[in-house]
Design brief:
Length: 224
């Protein structure tokens, strides 16, 4: 059985790493990449990316940093919750590592996009759109595994009593947001207003749950 000091070291490492994951992920997607993408206009998107190529490349680097810290968080969380239930802790870790592998491979869509833009193919804008769509689909697939990770982690929090039960409940509910959003993207490519609203609400809760959990782990640690 791990002693309290060791558990709190794992908790603070997990909290720090997860907080970096949140900050770099938001920066990459919402501050660097999303402003360059014009929905339904591949030519304008291609022009924006070429006009701010440094920001687009920086978004890829931010994603890589996010994934490095995500692996760190996954291992620290495994060590933290291993005394509670080793099998569930291992399963949660495996789902999170698979998510990281999927997202890492998915970044090749963005690097390929840059290669297309620097080529001479007159069909570049349409290819750019296809690569952006492929990246979005890859992200949706990766978040299925992350949603399952969050659900199991929430269950471990409830079982452990290391942390406030509310954090575990929030994380389990929030995991549904990732699963609904991902499967809606994959099964309903035309979209559904009701599902989109439901998924956005749950993903907002997911972000709140993740930030709350990471800050609690970093600042307060666990009740060992």
């Amino acid at each position: 059985m791990e002693n309290g000091n060791a558990l709190n070291r794992y908790a603070r490492l997990a909290g720090m790493a997860w907080l970096v994951v949140i900050l770099t992920g938001i920066t990459a997607e919402f501050f660097l990449r999303m402003p360059l993408i014009v929905a339904g206009d591949a030519a304008a998107t291609a022009s924006n990316i070429l006009g701010a190529e440094g920001a687009f490349r920086l978004s890829i680097v931010a994603d890589i940093i996010m994934l490095l810290f995500d692996v760190t968080a996954a291992v620290a969380l495994y060590l933290l919750f291993r005394p509670v239930n080793q099998l569930l802790a291992l399963l949660a870790t495996a789902f999170r590592l698979v998510m990281g592998a999927v997202l890492a491979a998915n970044l090749t869509a963005l690097t390929s996009l840059l290669s297309v833009l620097h080529g001479t193919d007159s069909a570049a804008p349409s290819i750019v759109q296809q690569l952006l769509d492929a990246h979005a689909s890859g992200y949706a697939i990766g978040l299925v595994f992350f949603g399952l990770h969050c659900f199991i982690l929430g269950a471990l929090i409830l079982k452990s009593r290391y942390l406030p039960r509310l954090l575990g409940i929030m994380l389990m509910i929030a995991s549904l947001g990732y699963l609904i959003d991902s499967f809606a993207h994959l099964l309903l490519p035309q979209g559904s207003a009701l599902l989109a609203m439901m998924a956005q609400t749950l993903i907002a809760l997911a972000l709140l749950a993740e930030v709350s959990l990471s800050l609690w782990l970093l600042v307060k640690g666990v009740r060992a």
